[in-house]
Specification:
Low-confidence stretches: none
Oligomer: single chain
Largest sheet: none
Structural class: mainly alpha
Number of strands: 0
Number of helices: 9
Length: about 180
C-alpha cells in the first residue's frame, strides 16, 4: 500500500510541476502517468473518460477534481484523495508564489516577456492535445451510427457555446437530454 501512495505522489508531483495551462492541459499528463499503470489498474481509458466527464461537471478545477477521484480509486481511501490533491496543488502553488515575486521584480525584462511568448503556444498545444486525447471510442462510439450521433452532438455543443451566449452548463444539460433521447 505504501508503494501505491509513493507512486501516486510521484505521478502527481510531475503533473503539478509540468501541468502548465491548467486542468485541461494536465489531462494528457494524467493519462500518461496514471491510466493503465500497474499501481492503479482500475483506471482504464474508459474509467479515465468517465473521470474527466465527472470532473468537468463538478465544481472546481478539473485537474484537482480528477486527482481527488484517482487518489481515492488508487488507494481505496480518503487519504489517497487527500495525498493526490495536495500533491498536485503544492508544486504549482509554490511555483506561482515564487514566480509572482520574480515577475513583479523583472516584469520589463525581455527574457521574461520572451519566456511568456514561448509558453502561450505550448499551453494551446496541451489543451488541443487533451481534446484529441478525448476523441476516442469511449466518447464517440464504435460504429458509424454512434460516431455520427456523437460528432453531431459535439459540433452542436461547440457551435452553441462559441456562437451564442448560452451558458455552458445549459449546453451540458441539453446534450445530456439529447444523448438520452437518441442513444
Amino acid at each position: 500500500m505504501i508503494s501505491t501512495y509513493l507512486r501516486l505522489i510521484w505521478a502527481y508531483l510531475q503533473i503539478g510541476l509540468f501541468g502548465f495551462g491548467g486542468g485541461y492541459a494536465m489531462l494528457s499528463l494524467i493519462q500518461g502517468l496514471v491510466v493503465g499503470q500497474e499501481w492503479c489498474p482500475q483506471i482504464t481509458n474508459q474509467a479515465f473518460t468517465d473521470i474527466v466527464a465527472i470532473s468537468q461537471m463538478t465544481p472546481g478545477p478539473i485537474g484537482i477534481n480528477s486527482a481527488t477521484y484517482i487518489g481515492y480509486v488508487a488507494t481505496g481511501s480518503v487519504w489517497g484523495s487527500i495525498v493526490a490533491t495536495l500533491t498536485v496543488v503544492l508544486p504549482p502553488f509554490l511555483l506561482v508564489l515564487y514566480a509572482s515575486h520574480f515577475v513583479a521584480r523583472h516584469h520589463d525584462s525581455a527574457i521574461i516577456k520572451g519566456a511568456f511568448m514561448g509558453l502561450r503556444p505550448v499551453v494551446v498545444g496541451l489543451i488541443a492535445s487533451a481534446a484529441l486525447l478525448l476523441m476516442n471510442e469511449e466518447n464517440f462510439g464504435s460504429n458509424a451510427s454512434e460516431i455520427a450521433k456523437s460528432v453531431s452532438i459535439c459540433l452542436a455543443a461547440l457551435g452553441t457555446v462559441y456562437f451564442t451566449k448560452i451558458h455552458p452548463i445549459v449546453v451540458i444539460v441539453m446534450a445530456g437530454v439529447v444523448g438520452y433521447l437518441i442513444f
